[in-house]
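Researcher: Please generate the 3D structure of the following complex. Treat every line as part of one assembly.
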Amino acid sequence: GAGVSQTPSNKVTEKGKYVELRCDPISGHTALYWYRQSLGQGPEFLIYFQGTGAADDSGLPNDRFFAVRPEGSVSTLKIQRTERGDSAVYLCASSLMGGADTEAFFGQGTRLTVV
Amino acid sequence: GQQVMQIPQYQHVQEGEDFTTYCNSSTTLSNIQWYKQRPGGHPVFLIQLVKSGEVKKQKRLTFQFGEAKKNSSLHITATQTTDVGTYFCAGPLMGSARQLTFGSGTQLTVLP
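Model: Done. Output below.
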């Protein structure tokens, strides 16, 4: 596609529910990142995929958060037992090669609200 | 832990005035990237600096990487209303070449 696509754009869920956020990266980009952005803050790193494998998941806040990228393209971020503190914009980014010296292309994000 | 700090947090300028945002890291960075995020939008890559003392220009924007590679600045000459947004610097976390640590950003408002 033309850019990184994220669905849904908005998600409202009740506390304790399970949610899945989807990211469709730019075709051909091997690296995929998930970030979380709270109001007035910069994006906070969650996880990085190179191909199908999670090369760095050190940013995941706890074991309620999990992400997959089974075929090396689309990725899903899964959050179990959501809490109000999980409310934020979840951003996905992809890059051609990966690494922190490569331009990252961000999607529009999914705004998650936990009520 | 390693931090990337940005100042100021907010800046209001009259259209036509200049604007500068500063980024400081607690450790030496191998490179630094700058992103712009429009209100309601997503971060968009502007530039990457790699060399000590490097200066790059994009039209009215001038980016500088410090000699010690621990600080950087973005200067906009003669701001326009299209410059409105939040400007973030980002650098690689020490010990990991894979993830960027973003600063908290400088939110620029340009008054017409």
